[in-house]
Description:
Radius of gyration: 28 Å
Order of helices and strands: HHEEEEHHEHHEHEH
CATH topology: Rossmann fold
Largest sheet: 7 strands, mixed
CATH superfamily: Vaccinia Virus protein VP39
Amino acid sequence: MALPRLLKTPFRSQPPDTAKVFCTWLDSGAGQALLTAERALLADILPRVTGYVALQSSVGVARPMLGSARLGTQVVMSAAGGDGATIQAKPCTFPFRKQSLDLVLLHHSLDFDDNPHQILRNAARTLVPGGTLVVVGFNPSSLWGLLRWFRAGTDEMPWRARFLSAQRVGDWLSVLGCEPEGLESRFHSKPRSRLGQWLAWLGDHLWHQHGSFYVLVARRRAAMIRPVRSRFALPDRGPNVIPVPVAHWRGKPQESPE
C-alpha cells in the first residue's frame, strides 16, 4: 500500500521577487485602477467598524488602504518596509499580542504568501472578541480568474497570485472562530481593455460577486461563559410562602349588626 507524503505543501511557493513584482504592477495603469476600485469599496465598509487599533497587512511596499477607517490608531505592516509602513515584518509572523487589535485588513496577503493558513490564524488570534477581519483578494470566479487559466505557469502579474475563493477563506475563518458576515466584489473590466466601462456596467447589474477582487468581512466570535452547576450542589430552595388567613388577606372583617 502506497503511503502519502509527509512533507507536502498545499500551496505552490512564490518566487522570491513576488512582492517587488507585485508593487511594480500596482504602479501600472491596471494596478492603479484596481487600487482605486478597492479604496472606493473599502470607503463604504471600513467606517462601520468601531474600536481603537487597526492593522493593515500589505505585500511589498505598503499602499494606504485604511484612509476611510475611523479608528484612532492605524498600523501598517509590510515585509519591505518603506515610507508607508509602520512595522517591518512578514505577514505570517504578526508580532502582536493576543486580542490587541480591533480591525485587521489583509490586503492581498493571502494571494502571495507561502502560508496563508498561518496568516489567518495569527489574525484571528490578535483580534479582540467582536473584532473585524477584512480580507481583500483576487476573485477566481471572475473574468480575471478565467484569464488566469490561459496564463498558467506565467510569472506575470496578477496571474502569479493564488486567487483563493472567498468561500474557501470563509471556511477557514469559521474554524478559527470568526464568523463571515458578507462579501462584496468590484472591478469587472478586463485589464487594458477598451470595453472596460461596458463590462463594469454589466458586472454591477448582473454579476455582483464576480468582480476581479472581493472584500470579505468576518467578525471574531465573542466567548460566552455559562456557569456549570456542580453535581453535589444542594437543590435550590423554593420561595418561602407564609400562609395567611383569607379573612386577614381580604382585610378586616366588618362587624355584624346587633
